[in-house]
Design brief:
Largest sheet: 6 strands, mixed
Shape: globular
CATH topology: Neuraminidase
Radius of gyration: 22 Å
């Protein structure tokens, strides 16, 4: 029921949060859109090998985690006044350090080591040097940590210890950015506010030079406001692969340098069709909300592409299904009722990143504690490893979230 409510709220926000003011924002006064796009080209889509993933929806189907994972473990994150973090919106693991972005609760970027010990924080809320309104996205470039703030349209640069270095202006609104190499930035933009740069306002992907001169544009979206709705990882990087998915479409793309797009997966939901595009036109509230109670397959994002597997969630009638696909065997394992029959403590929860063939997610500490208390009165308790029992016994409901790792196995 909780997942259904969350999905319904998302549909409402999808409509209510889209706007079209057709006005330039004050942050971009003086920005010359014609100069930024002087040499712009349209990206090229190349159709090489495409994997077709056939998904059959069986209602109330159990998914036993032992069928797809060989092990599950957690890392408790140190909790103190400096390290507090709420939900986790982005995870990056670099050189045994774990960078965690919390956009909306603590509004912070924190670094922990691979044992969960707190190492550094980057910037803070404010209007001064090195401060931001929102840490919208971040990336690590050589020895710098760079935070993008969409509300002030700037990049803040810090050293690895969190010391502020400099800021630079971003001349248009974007939602996410990745460095494909040291000289090229790939950006995802969903906003309809970029009226000062006429040639990009109907496109979702941009390839830019370091100074944000735009060389390529791709993923044309036109005036379709509803499909601009923000999904958590429309554009993200998994094991050095840059992956893009347009919300509510059936395709997943690999993104390359110099304006190259390659479709890599097409999802076939069989009898449960993808929502027809005409429903998205003209912000048709009644038609869109009606799909919540119909048989459409709603693929809103959340995909993770590992070295050998694809994971993604989708929804039918508000119930969320989880799909695992093996590139090697072409086999699909899926279900909407998940059972952790490996260690019984960690739910399959909030998976947003991977390391090789290991998915990475997180659980709120209060839910982990609640699971342990529930199992404490169950026969399953004796099956749990003593080391895990000891580790969880040190956790309190008010602690930082627990990072959870799910290592995929051949199936």
């Amino acid at each position: 029921m909780r997942l259904k409510i969350v999905f319904f709220i998302s549909l409402c926000l999808l409509i209510s949060c889209t706007s079209n003011t057709n006005k330039n924002l004050p942050e971009f006064e003086g920005v010359d859109g014609k100069t930024l796009t002087k040499n712009i080209k349209t990206a090229k889509t190349i159709h090489d090998e495409i994997k077709h993933v056939k998904v059959k929806t069986n209602y109330d189907e159990f998914l036993y985690l032992n069928n797809v994972f060989d092990s599950i473990w957690g890392i408790r994150l140190e909790t103190n006044d400096s390290s507090i973090i709420g939900n986790i919106d982005k995870i990056k693991i670099i050189d045994n350090d774990i960078y965690l972005l919390d956009k909306y609760h603590s509004k912070s970027l924190k670094r922990f080591n691979n044992k969960g010990l707190f190492k550094a924080a980057y910037g803070r809320i404010g209007k001064g040097p090195g401060e931001y309104y929102e840490p919208t996205d971040f990336y690590i470039l050589q020895n710098s940590v760079v935070i993008y703030d969409q509300f002030s349209a700037k990049l803040n640069h810090y050293d690895l210890e969190g010391n502020y270095r400099k800021s630079e202006r971003v001349p248009f609104i974007l939602n996410a950015l990745l460095y494909s190499n040291k000289d090229e930035i790939i950006c995802h933009t969903f906003s309809t506010d970029n009226y000062h740069v006429e040639k990009i306002k109907k496109y979702s992907l941009l390839w830019c030079e370091r100074g944000f001169n735009i060389r390529y544009r791709g993923a044309y979206r036109g005036n379709d406001l509803v499909t601009n709705f923000l999904s958590r990882n429309n554009l993200d990087q998994f094991n050095d692969k840059i992956i893009y998915h347009e919300p509510y479409s059936d395709s997943i793309f690999s993104i390359y340098t110099k304006g190259i797009i390659k479709p890599v997966y097409v999802i076939d939901f069989k009898k449960n069709l993808i929502i027809p595009k005409d429903i998205f036109k003209n912000n048709n509230r009644k038609k869109l909300i009606k799909t919540f109670n119909e048989e459409y397959a709603v693929f809103f994002g959340g995909q993770i592409v590992t070295e050998d597997f694809l994971y993604f969630p989708y929804s039918i009638k508000g119930s969320v299904y989880h799909v695992f696909y093996s590139n090697n065997t072409k086999k699909v394992v899926s279900g909407n009722r998940i059972i952790n029959d490996i260690n019984y403590i960690y739910d399959f929860s909030n998976a947003i990143q991977c390391n090789e063939n290991t998915l990475i997610g997180y659980m709120n500490a209060s839910i982990v504690v609640e699971n342990m208390l529930r199992i404490n009165n169950d026969k399953i308790f004796n099956k749990i490893e003593e080391e895990l029992k000891l580790d969880i016994s040190k956790l309190t409901s008010s602690d930082n979230p627990v990072l959870v790792f799910y290592r995929l196995k051949n199936f």
